Structures are given as C-alpha cells and as structure tokens.
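Lecture notes, unit on protein representations.

Consider one protein chain, 155 amino acids long.
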Amino acid sequence: EAALLEAECVCERLRNAGTAGEVEDRDRSVCDAGADLPSVRWFRAPHAKLSPPMRRVLARHGFTSVLSDCYGNDPWIPDPAFVAKSMLETAEHGSIAVIHMPERGFREHNHKALRDFLQGMQERQIRVVTLSALHAEALQPSSRQFADVSVGTEE
C-alpha cells in the first residue's frame, strides 16, 4: 500500500509537470524534502511503442524502458472482475504487472481490480514488490529471496 501511495505521488508530479525540466525541478524538491528517488528511473512506453526520438529523450534523462507481461486491458474494459481475472491468468513468479492508476471519476473500476488482483496473488503465495525491488534483487547473484516475486506498482 505504501508503494501504491508513493507511485500515485510520482504520477501526480508527472501529470502536473509541463516539461522535462519541471519534472527534474520537482524531483530535486522531493529530494530536498528528504525523499529518495529510485536508483533506476523506469518508463513504460504507451502501447509499448518507443520511437527513436523517445529513446533519445529517455537516455538523456536517465530513464530505463520496461515492458510488462501481465496486463488486463483496464483502460478499455471497465469490468474489475475481468481485469483482475485476466491479469491473474498471466501472472507468474517474476511477472511485471501493469494496471493504470485509478482516479476519482476516471478508471475507478481499477480500485477493485487492483484489490482483487493483489488478493489473488496473495492466495497464490506470490509476493508483490516494486520493479525497483525486483531489479535490485536480480543484481544480487547469490540471493534467491525474490524467487517467488511478482511486480506491483512502481513510481
């Protein structure tokens, strides 16, 4: 739940920022306030389409592109049971799951879809962590702590 709140905060900053410079200024403000930025800055291209100009901008600003393997088509299907079921059918240990941030009056069905998905993951005994946590553990050659992990919300 803390990761979800943190992700919502980051998404709100990005939504309210008009330029990449403003995002950097806001990131510095967050750091000045005592919050840490993730060591890797993740970016998921809309519809997994990443153009050469987008790649250059991401590289210039230090973002790493990521894809997912667990997706429920939540922007187009407003049925939370269908979204959660679809995601649970494809989720495996180490999966990267994507569900869009619900807001008041927009994608509200995702609140329930996310709850149901997380409950299903718990029932399957698959621990959900952030992409940054999964990445950090993957860099530890001797650790098998996250062998049963799937990725949840991310900044």
